[in-house]
Amino acid sequence: MAETASKAKESKSPATSGASSVENAPNRPWITSVTWSAITMAVLLFVAVTVNVLVGRVIHWEIVTGLGVLGFAFLSIGRRYRTI
């Protein structure tokens, strides 16, 4: 009976319970996260502006600026703590 109890404890160890290695990984450096976010936001804003100009719509720059800043902040923090 003692052998069964020890086997049950072994089967619940973090290595075998399906724990993700990403959860245990260290955070990324800020410079990497900020660089990746800046490039991503530049590409997204370029595409948004190009499409709006091609379809003949006027962009409200206040909205684009606000969403760009929020997107940059969320992407930077998300990349830093490995949620993105």
Tell me the number of structural domains: 1
Shape: elongated
Query: Could you tell me the strand content as a percent range?
Result: under 5%
Unreliable spans = none
Major sheet size, sense and barrel closure: none
What is the H/E string? HHHH
Q: Report the count of strand segments.
A: 0
Indicate the percent of residues in helices: over 70%
Oligomer: single chain
Calculate the terminal CA-CA distance, rounded to whole Å: 46 Å
* Rg over alpha carbons: 23 Å
What's the helix count?
4
Structural class: mainly alpha
Question: Residue-averaged pLDDT, rounded?
Answer: 78
Write the layout of secondary structure elements.
Layout: H1 2-11, H2 21-24, H3 30-54, H4 61-80
Describe the overall structure:
It is a single chain. The protein has 84 residues and is mainly alpha-helical. It has one domain. It contains four helices and no strands. It is elongated, with a radius of gyration of 23 Å.
List the main descriptive attributes of the protein structure presented here:
about 80 residues; mainly alpha
Please give a quick description of this structure.
By secondary structure, this protein is mainly alpha-helical.
